[in-house]
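User: Sequence recovery, please. Input:
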Protein backbone atom coordinates (compact mmCIF):
# COMPACT_ATOMS: atom_id res chain seq x y z
CA UNK A 1 0.00 0.00 0.00
CA UNK A 2 1.37 3.39 -1.00
CA UNK A 3 1.11 6.44 1.22
CA UNK A 4 -0.02 9.79 -0.11
CA UNK A 5 1.32 13.27 0.51
CA UNK A 6 -0.66 16.24 -0.78
CA UNK A 7 0.95 19.64 -1.26
CA UNK A 8 -1.30 22.68 -1.47
CA UNK A 9 -0.38 26.36 -1.68
CA UNK A 10 -1.79 29.42 0.01
CA UNK A 11 -1.54 33.23 0.12
CA UNK A 12 0.24 33.64 -3.19
CA UNK A 13 1.20 31.75 -6.31
CA UNK A 14 4.85 31.12 -7.29
CA UNK A 15 5.92 30.09 -3.79
CA UNK A 16 7.71 27.04 -5.14
CA UNK A 17 5.34 24.17 -4.34
CA UNK A 18 7.06 22.14 -7.06
CA UNK A 19 10.48 22.62 -5.46
CA UNK A 20 9.19 21.78 -1.98
CA UNK A 21 7.49 18.65 -3.36
CA UNK A 22 10.63 17.67 -5.28
CA UNK A 23 12.88 18.35 -2.26
CA UNK A 24 10.73 16.24 0.04
CA UNK A 25 10.66 13.49 -2.57
CA UNK A 26 14.47 13.64 -2.85
CA UNK A 27 14.88 13.25 0.90
CA UNK A 28 12.42 10.36 1.08
CA UNK A 29 14.16 8.73 -1.90
CA UNK A 30 17.54 9.20 -0.19
CA UNK A 31 16.14 7.25 2.78
CA UNK A 32 15.37 4.33 0.50
CA UNK A 33 11.68 4.91 -0.31
CA UNK A 34 10.33 4.57 -3.83
CA UNK A 35 8.77 7.95 -4.50
CA UNK A 36 6.99 9.66 -7.37
CA UNK A 37 5.40 13.07 -7.69
CA UNK A 38 2.36 14.11 -9.67
CA UNK A 39 0.91 17.50 -10.47
CA UNK A 40 -2.81 18.26 -10.65
CA UNK A 41 -3.51 21.52 -12.45
CA UNK A 42 -6.91 23.18 -12.14
CA UNK A 43 -7.06 24.69 -15.66
CA UNK A 44 -9.33 23.51 -18.46
CA UNK A 45 -6.68 22.88 -21.12
CA UNK A 46 -6.38 19.11 -21.47
CA UNK A 47 -2.62 19.56 -21.23
CA UNK A 48 -0.27 22.57 -21.37
CA UNK A 49 0.85 21.66 -24.91
CA UNK A 50 -1.39 24.29 -26.47
CA UNK A 51 -0.34 27.02 -24.01
CA UNK A 52 1.90 29.86 -25.09
CA UNK A 53 5.14 29.90 -23.02
CA UNK A 54 4.14 33.39 -21.83
CA UNK A 55 1.14 31.79 -20.12
CA UNK A 56 2.70 28.89 -18.32
CA UNK A 57 6.42 28.70 -19.06
CA UNK A 58 8.03 25.74 -20.76
CA UNK A 59 6.05 22.70 -21.79
CA UNK A 60 7.89 19.67 -20.42
CA UNK A 61 7.74 16.48 -22.50
CA UNK A 62 8.00 13.05 -20.87
CA UNK A 63 9.33 9.78 -22.32
CA UNK A 64 5.84 8.65 -23.29
CA UNK A 65 5.23 11.89 -25.19
CA UNK A 66 3.00 13.68 -22.70
CA UNK A 67 3.09 17.48 -22.86
CA UNK A 68 3.18 18.46 -19.21
CA UNK A 69 3.70 21.18 -16.63
CA UNK A 70 7.26 22.38 -16.10
CA UNK A 71 7.21 21.16 -12.50
CA UNK A 72 7.56 17.62 -13.85
CA UNK A 73 10.97 18.75 -15.07
CA UNK A 74 11.93 19.56 -11.49
CA UNK A 75 10.65 16.18 -10.34
CA UNK A 76 12.82 14.36 -12.89
CA UNK A 77 15.87 16.55 -12.30
CA UNK A 78 15.69 16.02 -8.53
CA UNK A 79 14.73 12.34 -8.45
CA UNK A 80 16.61 11.18 -11.54
CA UNK A 81 13.62 9.03 -12.49
CA UNK A 82 11.14 9.35 -15.35
CA UNK A 83 7.60 10.65 -15.07
CA UNK A 84 4.78 10.03 -17.52
CA UNK A 85 1.34 11.22 -18.61
CA UNK A 86 -0.11 9.83 -15.37
CA UNK A 87 2.02 12.33 -13.41
CA UNK A 88 0.20 15.38 -14.81
CA UNK A 89 -3.55 15.74 -14.70
CA UNK A 90 -5.60 18.84 -15.49
CA UNK A 91 -9.23 19.74 -14.87
CA UNK A 92 -9.63 19.53 -18.65
CA UNK A 93 -8.43 15.93 -18.71
CA UNK A 94 -10.70 14.98 -15.79
CA UNK A 95 -13.76 16.49 -17.47
CA UNK A 96 -12.83 14.96 -20.81
CA UNK A 97 -12.77 11.48 -19.22
CA UNK A 98 -16.05 12.01 -17.38
CA UNK A 99 -17.82 13.48 -20.43
CA UNK A 100 -16.56 10.67 -22.67
CA UNK A 101 -17.90 8.15 -20.17
CA UNK A 102 -21.22 9.97 -20.00
CA UNK A 103 -21.51 9.87 -23.81
CA UNK A 104 -20.95 6.11 -23.69
CA UNK A 105 -23.77 5.76 -21.20
CA UNK A 106 -21.46 4.54 -18.45
CA UNK A 107 -23.34 6.46 -15.75
CA UNK A 108 -26.53 4.48 -16.43
CA UNK A 109 -28.90 7.40 -16.58
CA UNK A 110 -27.62 9.19 -13.50
CA UNK A 111 -27.19 12.98 -13.35
CA UNK A 112 -23.46 13.55 -13.78
CA UNK A 113 -22.17 16.07 -11.22
CA UNK A 114 -19.01 17.65 -9.85
CA UNK A 115 -19.58 15.68 -6.64
CA UNK A 116 -19.32 12.69 -6.89
CA UNK A 117 -18.39 12.11 -10.55
CA UNK A 118 -15.66 14.70 -11.07
CA UNK A 119 -14.27 14.19 -7.56
CA UNK A 120 -14.32 10.39 -8.04
CA UNK A 121 -12.31 10.75 -11.24
CA UNK A 122 -9.84 13.04 -9.42
CA UNK A 123 -9.51 10.50 -6.61
CA UNK A 124 -9.04 7.65 -9.07
CA UNK A 125 -6.16 9.50 -10.68
CA UNK A 126 -4.68 10.56 -7.33
CA UNK A 127 -4.44 6.86 -6.37
CA UNK A 128 -3.52 5.53 -9.81
CA UNK A 129 0.28 5.61 -9.49
CA UNK A 130 0.13 4.31 -5.92
CA UNK A 131 -1.97 1.36 -7.10
CA UNK A 132 0.72 0.22 -9.54
CA UNK A 133 2.74 -1.16 -6.62
CA UNK A 134 5.81 0.66 -7.92
CA UNK A 135 5.86 3.33 -5.22
CA UNK A 136 5.90 3.55 -1.44
CA UNK A 137 5.00 7.22 -1.43
CA UNK A 138 3.12 9.32 -3.98
CA UNK A 139 3.34 13.08 -3.61
CA UNK A 140 0.55 15.04 -5.27
CA UNK A 141 1.03 18.74 -5.86
CA UNK A 142 -2.16 20.75 -6.40
CA UNK A 143 -1.60 23.69 -8.75
CA UNK A 144 -3.07 27.11 -7.99
CA UNK A 145 -3.82 28.72 -4.65
CA UNK A 146 -6.30 27.68 -1.95
CA UNK A 147 -9.37 29.86 -2.26
CA UNK A 148 -9.43 29.70 -6.07
CA UNK A 149 -12.81 28.51 -7.31
CA UNK A 150 -11.25 26.04 -9.72
CA UNK A 151 -9.23 24.14 -7.12
CA UNK A 152 -12.28 23.29 -4.97
CA UNK A 153 -12.97 19.82 -6.45
CA UNK A 154 -9.31 18.85 -5.88
CA UNK A 155 -9.44 19.88 -2.23
CA UNK A 156 -12.73 17.99 -1.85
CA UNK A 157 -11.05 14.90 -3.32
CA UNK A 158 -8.24 15.20 -0.75
CA UNK A 159 -10.83 15.57 2.02
CA UNK A 160 -12.58 12.39 0.93
CA UNK A 161 -9.33 10.45 0.63
CA UNK A 162 -8.27 11.55 4.11
CA UNK A 163 -11.53 10.10 5.35
CA UNK A 164 -11.39 6.93 3.26
CA UNK A 165 -7.76 5.93 3.77
CA UNK A 166 -6.17 4.87 7.07
CA UNK A 167 -5.14 7.87 9.18
CA UNK A 168 -1.39 7.35 8.65
CA UNK A 169 -1.64 6.91 4.88
CA UNK A 170 -2.14 10.59 4.10
CA UNK A 171 -0.21 13.76 4.88
CA UNK A 172 -1.28 17.26 3.86
CA UNK A 173 1.38 19.92 3.53
CA UNK A 174 0.32 23.53 3.04
CA UNK A 175 2.91 25.94 1.67
CA UNK A 176 2.32 29.57 2.53
CA UNK A 177 4.05 32.93 2.57
CA UNK A 178 5.13 34.80 5.70
CA UNK A 179 5.70 38.34 4.43
CA UNK A 180 8.11 40.74 6.14
CA UNK A 181 6.78 44.26 6.56
CA UNK A 182 9.70 46.63 6.48
CA UNK A 183 7.82 49.53 8.07
CA UNK A 184 6.74 47.38 11.02
CA UNK A 185 10.03 45.42 11.01
CA UNK A 186 7.94 42.30 11.48
CA UNK A 187 7.12 38.98 9.88
CA UNK A 188 3.36 38.63 9.50
CA UNK A 189 1.47 35.40 10.10
CA UNK A 190 -2.08 36.63 9.42
CA UNK A 191 -2.20 35.75 5.69
CA UNK A 192 -1.15 32.20 6.62
CA UNK A 193 -3.80 32.00 9.34
CA UNK A 194 -6.45 33.07 6.81
CA UNK A 195 -5.23 30.68 4.18
CA UNK A 196 -5.26 27.72 6.59
CA UNK A 197 -8.72 28.78 7.75
CA UNK A 198 -9.93 28.76 4.15
CA UNK A 199 -8.44 25.30 3.61
CA UNK A 200 -10.14 24.08 6.80
CA UNK A 201 -13.47 25.52 5.64
CA UNK A 202 -13.04 23.39 2.53
CA UNK A 203 -12.71 20.40 4.86
CA UNK A 204 -8.96 19.81 4.93
CA UNK A 205 -6.67 20.54 7.89
CA UNK A 206 -2.98 20.57 7.06
CA UNK A 207 -0.58 18.35 9.01
CA UNK A 208 2.47 20.41 8.12
CA UNK A 209 2.82 24.09 7.24
CA UNK A 210 5.84 25.09 5.19
CA UNK A 211 6.46 28.82 5.47
CA UNK A 212 8.20 30.58 2.64
CA UNK A 213 10.03 33.53 4.11
CA UNK A 214 12.84 35.97 3.41
CA UNK A 215 13.92 36.01 7.08
CA UNK A 216 14.33 33.30 9.72
CA UNK A 217 11.24 32.46 11.78
CA UNK A 218 11.74 32.87 15.53
CA UNK A 219 10.45 30.11 17.85
CA UNK A 220 7.75 32.60 18.90
CA UNK A 221 6.47 33.04 15.38
CA UNK A 222 6.54 29.28 14.81
CA UNK A 223 4.55 28.78 17.99
CA UNK A 224 2.02 31.39 16.92
CA UNK A 225 1.56 29.76 13.52
CA UNK A 226 1.25 26.34 15.15
CA UNK A 227 -1.29 27.56 17.68
CA UNK A 228 -3.54 29.40 15.25
CA UNK A 229 -3.25 26.89 12.44
CA UNK A 230 -3.75 23.87 14.66
CA UNK A 231 -0.55 21.96 13.92
CA UNK A 232 2.29 20.79 16.17
CA UNK A 233 5.07 23.35 16.54
CA UNK A 234 7.60 20.96 15.00
CA UNK A 235 5.31 20.80 11.95
CA UNK A 236 5.88 24.48 11.17
CA UNK A 237 8.73 24.37 8.71
CA UNK A 238 10.77 27.38 7.70
CA UNK A 239 11.59 27.60 4.00
CA UNK A 240 13.89 30.56 3.71
CA UNK A 241 14.96 31.89 0.29
CA UNK A 242 17.99 29.98 -1.02
CA UNK A 243 20.67 30.92 -3.52
CA UNK A 244 19.62 28.01 -5.74
CA UNK A 245 16.72 25.58 -5.80
CA UNK A 246 19.23 22.74 -5.36
CA UNK A 247 19.93 23.91 -1.78
CA UNK A 248 16.28 23.42 -0.81
CA UNK A 249 16.51 19.63 -0.11
CA UNK A 250 19.37 20.29 2.34
CA UNK A 251 17.41 23.11 3.98
CA UNK A 252 14.38 20.82 4.30
CA UNK A 253 16.60 18.08 5.75
CA UNK A 254 17.80 20.53 8.42
CA UNK A 255 14.19 21.52 9.12
CA UNK A 256 13.26 17.80 9.32
CA UNK A 257 10.42 18.07 6.81
CA UNK A 258 10.90 14.44 5.78
CA UNK A 259 11.07 13.19 9.39
CA UNK A 260 7.86 14.99 10.38
CA UNK A 261 6.18 13.67 7.27
CA UNK A 262 7.28 10.08 8.02
CA UNK A 263 6.18 10.48 11.62
CA UNK A 264 2.64 11.31 10.46
CA UNK A 265 2.84 8.15 8.35
CA UNK A 266 3.69 6.26 11.50
CA UNK A 267 7.25 5.54 10.40
CA UNK A 268 9.16 6.81 13.44
CA UNK A 269 12.65 5.43 12.73
CA UNK A 270 13.37 5.70 9.01
CA UNK A 271 16.77 4.74 7.51
CA UNK A 272 19.42 7.50 7.44
CA UNK A 273 19.48 9.54 4.21
CA UNK A 274 22.16 8.80 1.63
CA UNK A 275 22.60 12.20 0.04
CA UNK A 276 26.34 12.09 -0.73
CA UNK A 277 25.99 12.53 -4.50
CA UNK A 278 23.72 15.51 -4.06
CA UNK A 279 26.14 17.12 -1.63
CA UNK A 280 29.05 16.53 -4.00
CA UNK A 281 27.08 18.28 -6.74
CA UNK A 282 26.36 21.24 -4.43
CA UNK A 283 30.04 21.43 -3.48
CA UNK A 284 31.06 21.77 -7.14
CA UNK A 285 28.19 24.12 -7.88
CA UNK A 286 29.13 26.45 -5.04
CA UNK A 287 32.87 26.51 -5.74
CA UNK A 288 33.34 27.19 -9.45
CA UNK A 289 36.88 27.66 -10.70
CA UNK A 290 35.97 29.67 -13.79
CA UNK A 291 33.12 31.50 -15.48
CA UNK A 292 31.76 31.12 -18.99
CA UNK A 293 29.27 33.39 -20.70
CA UNK A 294 26.74 31.63 -22.90
CA UNK A 295 24.41 33.55 -25.20
CA UNK A 296 20.89 32.11 -25.10
CA UNK A 297 19.19 33.16 -28.32
CA UNK A 298 15.43 32.97 -28.12
CA UNK A 299 12.27 34.96 -28.45
CA UNK A 300 10.78 34.38 -25.01
CA UNK A 301 13.86 35.47 -23.09
CA UNK A 302 12.03 37.99 -20.92
CA UNK A 303 10.37 35.01 -19.31
CA UNK A 304 12.88 32.77 -17.49
CA UNK A 305 10.44 29.86 -17.21
CA UNK A 306 10.18 29.55 -21.00
CA UNK A 307 13.63 27.92 -21.16
CA UNK A 308 13.59 26.32 -17.71
CA UNK A 309 15.08 22.94 -18.63
CA UNK A 310 17.85 24.54 -20.71
CA UNK A 311 18.83 26.82 -17.81
CA UNK A 312 18.85 23.91 -15.37
CA UNK A 313 20.88 21.74 -17.78
CA UNK A 314 23.48 24.55 -17.85
CA UNK A 315 23.67 24.43 -14.06
CA UNK A 316 24.24 20.65 -14.10
CA UNK A 317 26.85 20.89 -16.85
CA UNK A 318 28.56 23.87 -15.16
CA UNK A 319 28.98 21.85 -11.97
CA UNK A 320 30.61 18.98 -13.90
CA UNK A 321 33.04 21.46 -15.49
CA UNK A 322 33.52 23.27 -12.16
CA UNK A 323 32.53 26.52 -13.79
CA UNK A 324 29.77 29.02 -13.35
CA UNK A 325 27.61 29.38 -16.44
CA UNK A 326 26.47 32.94 -16.88
CA UNK A 327 23.57 32.99 -19.29
CA UNK A 328 23.31 36.13 -21.42
CA UNK A 329 19.82 36.41 -22.85
CA UNK A 330 19.79 37.72 -26.38
CA UNK A 331 16.46 38.46 -28.01
CA UNK A 332 16.50 36.91 -31.47
CA UNK A 333 14.11 39.53 -32.84
CA UNK A 334 16.68 42.28 -32.39
CA UNK A 335 19.74 40.57 -33.90
CA UNK A 336 20.63 41.94 -37.33
CA UNK A 337 23.67 41.44 -39.61
CA UNK A 338 24.71 44.98 -38.63
CA UNK A 339 24.65 44.54 -34.86
CA UNK A 340 25.41 40.81 -34.49
CA UNK A 341 29.11 41.38 -33.75
CA UNK A 342 28.33 43.91 -31.05
CA UNK A 343 25.68 41.65 -29.51
CA UNK A 344 27.60 38.38 -29.56
CA UNK A 345 31.30 39.16 -29.37
CA UNK A 346 32.92 38.17 -26.10
CA UNK A 347 30.53 35.28 -25.53
CA UNK A 348 32.09 31.86 -24.98
CA UNK A 349 29.28 29.88 -26.58
CA UNK A 350 25.94 30.27 -28.27
CA UNK A 351 22.78 28.25 -27.74
CA UNK A 352 19.99 28.83 -30.22
CA UNK A 353 16.80 27.67 -28.56
CA UNK A 354 13.62 25.99 -29.71
CA UNK A 355 10.55 27.88 -30.81
CA UNK A 356 7.57 28.12 -33.11
CA UNK A 357 6.62 30.55 -35.86
CA UNK A 358 8.23 33.30 -37.86
CA UNK A 359 9.05 35.89 -35.21
CA UNK A 360 12.76 36.24 -34.51
CA UNK A 361 13.98 33.56 -36.88
CA UNK A 362 16.14 35.79 -39.12
CA UNK A 363 17.97 36.88 -35.95
CA UNK A 364 18.56 33.25 -35.06
CA UNK A 365 19.96 32.54 -38.54
CA UNK A 366 22.25 35.57 -38.28
CA UNK A 367 23.47 34.35 -34.88
CA UNK A 368 24.23 30.86 -36.27
CA UNK A 369 26.21 32.43 -39.13
CA UNK A 370 28.26 34.43 -36.64
CA UNK A 371 29.02 31.32 -34.56
CA UNK A 372 29.91 29.26 -37.63
CA UNK A 373 32.21 31.87 -39.14
CA UNK A 374 33.89 32.87 -35.89
CA UNK A 375 34.56 29.43 -34.43
CA UNK A 376 32.26 30.15 -31.49
CA UNK A 377 30.95 26.97 -29.78
CA UNK A 378 27.42 26.47 -31.08
CA UNK A 379 24.56 24.32 -29.83
CA UNK A 380 21.20 24.40 -31.62
CA UNK A 381 18.12 22.79 -30.13
CA UNK A 382 15.11 21.85 -32.27
CA UNK A 383 14.28 25.11 -34.06
CA UNK A 384 17.91 26.04 -33.32
CA UNK A 385 19.09 23.04 -35.35
CA UNK A 386 16.64 23.88 -38.13
CA UNK A 387 18.09 27.42 -38.24
CA UNK A 388 21.61 25.96 -38.51
CA UNK A 389 20.45 23.91 -41.50
CA UNK A 390 18.87 26.95 -43.18
CA UNK A 391 21.94 29.09 -42.52
CA UNK A 392 24.19 26.43 -44.06
CA UNK A 393 21.93 26.13 -47.09
CA UNK A 394 21.86 29.89 -47.64
CA UNK A 395 25.47 30.81 -46.97
CA UNK A 396 27.48 27.69 -47.77
CA UNK A 397 25.37 25.89 -50.37
CA UNK A 398 24.35 29.22 -51.88
CA UNK A 399 20.62 28.58 -51.79
CA UNK A 400 19.79 32.16 -50.95
CA UNK A 401 16.07 31.63 -50.37
CA UNK A 402 16.30 28.34 -48.45
CA UNK A 403 13.86 28.19 -45.58
CA UNK A 404 11.55 26.04 -43.51
CA UNK A 405 8.03 25.68 -44.87
CA UNK A 406 6.92 26.69 -41.36
CA UNK A 407 8.19 30.20 -42.17
CA UNK A 408 7.76 30.34 -45.95
CA UNK A 409 5.47 27.85 -47.60
CA UNK A 410 6.61 28.88 -51.08
CA UNK A 411 10.37 28.72 -50.55
CA UNK A 412 12.17 27.24 -53.60
CA UNK A 413 14.42 25.31 -51.18
CA UNK A 414 12.40 23.79 -48.34
CA UNK A 415 15.43 22.37 -46.52
CA UNK A 416 13.21 22.02 -43.46
CA UNK A 417 9.81 20.61 -44.31
CA UNK A 418 6.71 19.33 -42.58
CA UNK A 419 6.97 15.63 -41.70
CA UNK A 420 4.89 13.43 -43.99
CA UNK A 421 2.57 12.24 -41.20
CA UNK A 422 2.04 15.85 -40.08
CA UNK A 423 0.62 16.96 -43.42
CA UNK A 424 -2.81 15.49 -42.72
CA UNK A 425 -3.05 16.71 -39.12
CA UNK A 426 -5.14 19.78 -38.31
CA UNK A 427 -5.67 19.48 -34.53
CA UNK A 428 -3.10 21.35 -32.45
CA UNK A 429 -3.22 19.48 -29.11
CA UNK A 430 -0.91 16.48 -28.67
CA UNK A 431 -0.30 16.01 -32.39
CA UNK A 432 3.40 16.85 -32.78
CA UNK A 433 6.15 14.25 -32.96
CA UNK A 434 6.33 13.75 -29.22
CA UNK A 435 8.34 11.76 -26.71
CA UNK A 436 11.29 9.39 -26.88
CA UNK A 437 12.71 8.15 -30.19
CA UNK A 438 15.85 6.18 -30.90
CA UNK A 439 18.69 7.78 -32.78
CA UNK A 440 21.67 5.97 -34.34
CA UNK A 441 24.94 7.87 -34.24
CA UNK A 442 27.56 7.99 -36.98
CA UNK A 443 30.77 6.34 -35.74
CA UNK A 444 33.57 8.84 -34.98
CA UNK A 445 31.27 11.84 -35.22
CA UNK A 446 31.23 14.52 -32.52
CA UNK A 447 27.87 13.16 -31.34
CA UNK A 448 29.33 9.68 -31.05
CA UNK A 449 32.26 11.01 -29.01
CA UNK A 450 29.92 12.97 -26.76
CA UNK A 451 27.55 10.11 -26.01
CA UNK A 452 30.14 7.33 -26.08
CA UNK A 453 27.60 4.94 -27.60
CA UNK A 454 26.00 4.23 -30.95
CA UNK A 455 22.32 4.13 -30.13
CA UNK A 456 20.69 6.80 -28.02
CA UNK A 457 17.13 7.82 -27.19
CA UNK A 458 15.98 11.41 -26.84
CA UNK A 459 12.69 13.29 -26.54
CA UNK A 460 11.04 15.22 -29.34
CA UNK A 461 8.46 17.96 -29.74
CA UNK A 462 8.18 19.33 -33.27
CA UNK A 463 6.36 19.06 -36.59
CA UNK A 464 9.09 19.96 -39.05
CA UNK A 465 12.25 18.06 -39.94
CA UNK A 466 15.35 18.09 -42.11
CA UNK A 467 14.28 17.47 -45.72
CA UNK A 468 16.10 14.33 -46.85
CA UNK A 469 15.88 15.44 -50.49
CA UNK A 470 18.87 17.65 -49.68
CA UNK A 471 20.87 15.00 -47.84
CA UNK A 472 23.64 14.59 -50.38
CA UNK A 473 24.06 18.27 -51.08
CA UNK A 474 24.57 18.97 -47.39
CA UNK A 475 27.01 16.10 -47.01
CA UNK A 476 28.99 17.20 -50.05
CA UNK A 477 29.00 20.74 -48.71
CA UNK A 478 30.65 19.60 -45.47
CA UNK A 479 27.82 19.27 -42.98
CA UNK A 480 27.87 15.93 -41.15
CA UNK A 481 24.46 14.42 -40.53
CA UNK A 482 25.59 12.41 -37.56
CA UNK A 483 22.37 11.12 -36.02
CA UNK A 484 19.40 9.46 -37.72
CA UNK A 485 16.27 7.73 -36.63
CA UNK A 486 17.00 4.07 -37.41
CA UNK A 487 13.44 3.39 -38.63
CA UNK A 488 12.41 6.51 -40.54
CA UNK A 489 15.82 7.85 -41.53
CA UNK A 490 14.88 11.30 -40.19
CA UNK A 491 17.98 13.41 -39.55
CA UNK A 492 18.27 14.15 -35.83
CA UNK A 493 21.77 15.64 -35.48
CA UNK A 494 23.87 17.93 -37.68
CA UNK A 495 27.44 19.01 -37.02
CA UNK A 496 30.37 20.81 -38.64
CA UNK A 497 33.68 18.98 -38.33
CA UNK A 498 35.90 21.97 -39.16
CA UNK A 499 34.69 23.95 -36.20
CA UNK A 500 35.74 23.82 -32.53
CA UNK A 501 32.19 22.77 -31.50
CA UNK A 502 29.13 22.99 -33.72
CA UNK A 503 26.15 20.74 -33.15
CA UNK A 504 22.42 20.99 -33.76
CA UNK A 505 19.88 18.46 -32.54
CA UNK A 506 16.28 18.03 -33.62
CA UNK A 507 15.32 16.70 -30.18
CA UNK A 508 15.34 18.27 -26.71
CA UNK A 509 18.35 17.00 -24.75
CA UNK A 510 17.69 19.51 -21.94
CA UNK A 511 14.67 17.44 -20.86
CA UNK A 512 16.87 14.54 -19.80
CA UNK A 513 19.53 16.43 -17.85
CA UNK A 514 19.38 15.71 -14.13
CA UNK A 515 21.58 16.54 -11.14
CA UNK A 516 22.91 12.99 -11.04
CA UNK A 517 22.96 12.57 -14.80
CA UNK A 518 23.95 15.85 -16.47
CA UNK A 519 23.34 15.73 -20.20
CA UNK A 520 26.53 14.89 -22.14
CA UNK A 521 25.96 17.45 -24.93
CA UNK A 522 25.55 20.23 -22.37
CA UNK A 523 28.65 19.00 -20.53
CA UNK A 524 30.74 18.99 -23.73
CA UNK A 525 29.31 22.31 -24.90
CA UNK A 526 30.28 23.99 -21.61
CA UNK A 527 33.69 22.36 -21.78
CA UNK A 528 34.12 23.82 -25.30
CA UNK A 529 33.04 27.20 -23.91
CA UNK A 530 35.69 26.91 -21.16
CA UNK A 531 38.32 26.38 -23.88
CA UNK A 532 36.93 29.34 -25.81
CA UNK A 533 37.18 31.54 -22.71
CA UNK A 534 40.80 30.43 -22.23
CA UNK A 535 41.52 31.27 -25.87
CA UNK A 536 40.16 34.80 -25.37
CA UNK A 537 42.47 35.21 -22.38
CA UNK A 538 45.55 34.23 -24.41
CA UNK A 539 44.47 36.58 -27.21
CA UNK A 540 43.99 39.40 -24.70
CA UNK A 541 47.47 38.82 -23.24
CA UNK A 542 49.01 38.82 -26.71
CA UNK A 543 47.33 42.12 -27.61
CA UNK A 544 48.50 43.58 -24.31
CA UNK A 545 52.08 42.53 -25.14
CA UNK A 546 51.87 44.08 -28.61
CA UNK A 547 50.40 47.29 -27.17
CA UNK A 548 53.10 47.49 -24.52
N1 LIG B 1 8.73 24.94 -34.88
C1 LIG B 1 9.60 23.85 -35.14
C2 LIG B 1 8.84 22.58 -35.47
O1 LIG B 1 7.70 22.43 -35.13
C3 LIG B 1 10.54 23.61 -33.96
C4 LIG B 1 9.84 23.18 -32.73
C5 LIG B 1 10.70 23.29 -31.50
O2 LIG B 1 11.69 24.03 -31.47
N2 LIG B 1 10.31 22.63 -30.44
O3 LIG B 1 9.39 21.70 -36.07
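Assistant: Recovered sequence (548 residues):
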Amino acid sequence: MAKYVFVTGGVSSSLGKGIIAASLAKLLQSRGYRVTIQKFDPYINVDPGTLNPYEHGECYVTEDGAETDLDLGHYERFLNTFTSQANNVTTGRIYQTVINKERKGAYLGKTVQVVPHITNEIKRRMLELGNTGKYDIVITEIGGTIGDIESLPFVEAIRQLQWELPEDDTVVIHLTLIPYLKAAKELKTKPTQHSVKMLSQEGVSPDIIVCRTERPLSPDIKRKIAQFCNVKQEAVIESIDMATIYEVPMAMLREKLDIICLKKMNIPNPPEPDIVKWEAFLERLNHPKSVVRIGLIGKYIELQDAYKSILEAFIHAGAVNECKVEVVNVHSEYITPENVEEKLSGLDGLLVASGFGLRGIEGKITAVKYARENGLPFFGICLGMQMAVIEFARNVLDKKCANSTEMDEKTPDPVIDLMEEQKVISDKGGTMRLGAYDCALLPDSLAHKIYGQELISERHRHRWEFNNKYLEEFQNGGMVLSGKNPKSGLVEIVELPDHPFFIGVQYHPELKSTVENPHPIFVHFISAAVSQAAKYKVEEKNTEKVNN
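The first strand starts at residue 3 and ends at 9.
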